[in-house]
Amino acid sequence: MATTTRLHADSDADSGIWWLDLGGVNAYLADDHGDLVLVDAGTPRDAGDVRDAVRETGHRVADVDRVLVTHYDLDHVGALSKLDLDAPVYVGRADAEVLVGRRKPDWRNRKGLLQRVSDLFVSAPDLPIRPVEDGDRIGSFTAYHTPGHSPGHTVYVAEDPSVAFLGDLVRESDGRLEPSPWAMSYDTDEVGRSLRRLVREAPDFEVAAMGHGTPIMRHGSDRLREAANRP
């Protein structure tokens, strides 16, 4: 069963961001100045929990105006085809090609081979798929291409609401952010480069919302900077 938590950028104001804790993975809902944005969607088995969690926020899945996907993985795109969405799906170009079936993950890479196996359980959603390039603006969010965990991995950062949807570039453990580990990444050196570039180029943000672990509600960009600077 999913739990839904409204995140706060500070003690006095709602951030307009909800954490949908699906158990093994996170999804998020954001109010982008009146547009309702779903970020990632969990596994195929999470579809019912996503619907229930969205309902807990006072919305319906039918209210979602767009979906931001951080990357192609079973636990981030698996429920897209099962949610009865009527909204465009934004995803980094390299991963968008996998999602729509134009390209298969690279079986010669350990992570690509894992994706090939899990691909059997992913159905391409019958929705407009909009490939995202580095620097694209989507509502209030700027897209940052952050490859390494997957070729098309993308982080979405906004100043209002003050949040970064980090996907699996990092994961949270005991309040610290750690880069995506070797076993789950295409290239950990590239993960490190993407992390350092994001820290250099993205504006500061309060909420660090990652795919795995507990979101950091304050000074998220500082925690990300610490992860990038750690040996």
User: Can you tell me the residue ranges where pLDDT is under 50 for at least 5 consecutive residues?
Assistant: 10-14
How many domains? 1
> What is the total tally of β strands?
14
Backbone shape:
globular
Question: Could you state the order of secondary-structure elements as H and E?
Answer: EEEEHEHEHHEEEEEEEHEH
Q: Kindly report how far apart the N and C termini lie.
A: 37 Å
Q: Tally the helices: what do you get? A: 6
Strand order of the largest sheet: 1-2-3-4-5-6-7
Strand content: 25-35%
Rg on CA atoms, Å: 16 Å
Q: What is the SS-derived class?
A: alpha/beta
CATH level-3 fold name: Metallo-beta-lactamase, Chain A
CATH class, please? Alpha Beta
CATH architecture: 4-Layer Sandwich
Q: Fraction of residues in helices?
A: 10-25%
Q: Quick one: CATH superfamily?
A: Ribonuclease Z/Hydroxyacylglutathione hydrolase-like
Average pLDDT: 94
Description:
It is a single chain. The chain has 231 residues and is an alpha/beta fold. Helix content is 23%, strand content 30%. It has a single domain, classed as 4-Layer Sandwich (Metallo-beta-lactamase, Chain A), CATH 3.60.15. The protein has helices at 47-56, 74-77, 93-99, 110-118, 188-201, 220-229, and strands at 3-8, 14-21, 26-32, 35-39, 66-69, 89-92, 129-132, 137-138, 141-145, 154-159, 162-167, 170-173, 176-179, 207-210. The protein has a seven-stranded mixed sheet. A five-stranded mixed sheet has the order 8-9-10-11-14, covered by helices on one side. The chain has a two-stranded antiparallel ribbon with strand order 12-13. A hairpin with a 2-residue loop joins β12 (170-173) and β13. α5 (188-201) crosses α6. The longest helix has 14 residues, at 188-201. The radius of gyration is 16 Å and the shape is globular. The N and C termini lie far apart (37 Å). Mean pLDDT is 94; it is low at 10-14.
